[in-house]
Amino acid sequence: MAERLLIIDDDARLSAMLKDYLSSAGYEVRTALTAGAGLTDLARHPPEAVILDVMLPDLDGLEALRRIRAGSGVPVLMLTARGDEADRIVGLEIGADDYLPKPFSPRELLARLRAVLRRRSGPASPEILRFGRLEIDKGSRAARLDGASCDLTGHQFDILAVLAENAGRILSRERILDLVRGGGEVFDRSIDVHVSRIRAAIEEDPKHPRRILTLRGAGYLFARRQDEES
Q: Where are the beta strands (DSSP E) in the chain?
C-alpha cells in the first residue's frame, strides 16, 4: 500500500504540481488549501507525513503545527516563502521535522521527505542504550527518564540517538546532521534548537545540563556518566 501524504498549501498550482510529482514517485497524495481543511483531513485520513506551508489564509501554519502536535506525532515538513530564520527556528521548536524554504526543487523536497519517513520507519534495532536514569530505546524509538516517556519529535530522537551512540566523543553540528540526514544542507542553528528541546525533555536542569554538554566552538558531547552523583 502506498504511503499517504497530506499537502496543506493555499497555492493550488504548487499543490497540484507536487501531487503529480509525488504520486509519480509512488505516494498517495491528498491536498488541502486551508489549515482548517487540512486538520480535518488529517483527522479523517491519517497520513504518514504532512507537507505544511507556513503562510495560510485562515490560520498561521505555525499555529496549525501546534494543533497537529497536540494530538499527533506525524512527521511534518514545513514550507515557507518568507526565508526568515526566525520562522524556521520557531517551527523546529514547535516540532517540525524538517524545513524547506520556497522556491525549492521538487527533487530536494522528495529527498527530504524520504529522509523524514526513513527516520520514522527505518529498520528498528533492539539495542537499548542506558545512561543512569536515562534509557534510549532504538527499537521503539523512545527515550525514557525514570521510566517516564520523554516528549521528543522523530528528528529530535534521531539526534539524541546519534549523540548517545557516540557518547564521550565531541560531534560538530555538521557531523550530527551528516549522521542524522546522511548529508544535505546544514543549518547550524537548527541543531541548537533541537538540542535545546532535547535538553528540556531529558535534563533535570536544562540550563545546567549534565547529559548533553556544549563545547564552545567544537560542538556537543554526550556524557558517558550522568547520574552517579545524583
A: 4-8, 28-32, 49-53, 76-80, 98-101, 128-131, 134-137, 142-145, 148-149, 170-171, 212-215, 219-222
